[in-house]
Design goal:
Elements (H helix, E strand, L loop, with lengths): L4 E4 L8 E3 L5 E6 L2 E8 L2 E8 L6 E6 L6 E5 L4 E7 L2 E6 L8 E6 L5 E6 L4 E7 L4 E7 L7 E6 L5 E6 L3 E6 L23 E6 L6 E6 L6 E5 L3 E6 L9 E6 L5 E8 L2 E6 L4 E7 L2 E7 L16 H11 L16 E10 L2 E9 L3 E6 L1
Antiparallel strand pairs: 1-28, 2-3, 3-4, 4-5, 6-7, 7-8, 8-9, 10-11, 11-12, 12-13, 14-15, 15-16, 16-17, 18-19, 19-20, 20-21, 22-23, 23-24, 24-25, 26-27, 27-28
Length: about 375
């Protein structure tokens, strides 16, 4: 497997990151700003800063086709940034929430986006031409706690939400008059706005950190704070699911996950490395880590001279520097995003985390 491409952007946590469709622009959420980097050779150079929020930016997403950037923040606002000759122009979104916005993602067709929040609602935002602004409709019931993560179904209508009440739920976000009626799927046939198509509880009542639909949309995976990954295979509206496969691990909890293909998931979190999971309706298992530990420079033991050894003993009271982890990331991985796709399968993915590193991996 080819070595990962590591970019140490700064010594500061990265809350979220997103690449443009051509992968030449990288947006990174850092404090109350979003930094835009452009690729120059084999590194990323800071090109621009989006300053519109006055509290921590929690999430950022670049729309692949239009290039618009949506950001959300603990200041309870979301902004849509449109490229213009004079720079990036922000448009305020009427979110109508009274708690922090926690997560944002464009729908696959980019006609709307969803914002998760601590106000126990998911705001589905769409553009109103006559008033020239973004407005929102709220998904409320039966949400009872902060929504930590959301993911869109490939059909643009269904949306999964994971929250701190230990549930992963699937809702319909169908906006009558704004979009075409969706095709029937395993999640349901009649899908008016707000329909709950599925509600799944984590076995240990742990917070749900990540949710993701499979490439076909016929399965939902979610990771929770009890270090488990659960995969649900639906059978139809108002029917119990065909299968619910829960994989408990001995690892630290996962913070983010993506499907690379219909039978494979990559998940990462507090263990500072990405793991490959494979399976189907009969069961799932961890196949292994995405990295080989003994790489030079990644904490491999170096030959120390006797003089250096005694120097270390004198300075630090120990011979080996054990502060560096043997993993590429030196702290929690907070976000995994698909980087490159081939034939419907993800061939490369990117991770970012608390250590300020952004890493591009080969699957």
């Amino acid at each position: 497997m080819a070595a990962p491409e590591v970019h140490h952007l700064f010594h500061h946590p990265i809350a979220d990151h997103s690449f443009s469709a051509d992968r030449q622009t990288l947006a990174v959420a850092r404090d109350s700003n979003v930094e835009l980097y452009s690729r120059s050779g084999n590194k990323f150079v800071l090109k621009d800063e989006l300053k519109g929020h006055d509290k921590l930016v929690t999430s950022v997403d670049i729309a692949p086709q239009s290039g618009r950037i949506v950001t959300c923040s603990q200041d309870r606002n979301a902004l849509v940034w449109t490229p213009s000759p004079s720079g990036w122009k922000p448009t305020l979104v009427l979110l109508r929430i009274n708690r922090a916005a926690t997560f944002v993602r464009w729908s696959p067709n980019e006609a709307k986006f969803a914002v998760a929040s601590g106000a126990r609602v998911v705001a589905i935002c769409y553009f109103e031409e006559e008033n020239d602004w973004w407005v929102s409709k709220h998904l409320k019931k039966p949400l009872r706690s902060t929504i930590t993560t959301i993911a869109w179904h490939p059909n643009n209508v269904l949306i999964a939400a994971g929250s701190t009440d230990a549930h992963a739920r699937v809702f319909s976000s169908f906006l009558k008059g704004n979009e075409a009626r969706p095709e029937p799927s395993a999640w349901g046939t009649k899908l008016p706005f707000g329909t709950v198509c599925g509600e799944f509880l984590n076995n240990s009542a742990g917070w749900v950190h990540a949710v993701a639909f499979s490439p076909s949309g016929e399965a939902l995976a979610f990771a929770a704070h009890d270090s488990s990954v659960t995969v649900v295979y639906p059978a139809g509206q108002d029917e119990p699911p065909r299968a619910v496969v829960s994989l408990s691990t001995q690892l630290l909890p996962f913070q983010s996950l993506i499907w690379t293909k219909e039978t494979e998931i990559v998940a990462a979190g507090y263990d500072c490395e990405a793991y490959r999971l494979q399976g189907g309706e009969q069961g799932w298992q961890i196949v292994g880590s995405m990295e080989s530990k003994g790489r030079p420079g990644m904490g491999a033991v170096r030959e120390e001279s006797a003089l250096n050894m005694f120097k270390q003993m004198d300075l630090k009271g120990k011979t080996k520097d054990d502060t560096q982890l043997k993993t590429v990331h030196q702290n929690t991985i907070s976000t995994i995003r698909a980087y490159e796709e081939r034939g419907g399968n993800v061939s490369k993915f990117s991770t970012s985390g608390v250590d300020g590193r952004l890493v591009v991996w080969n699957v």
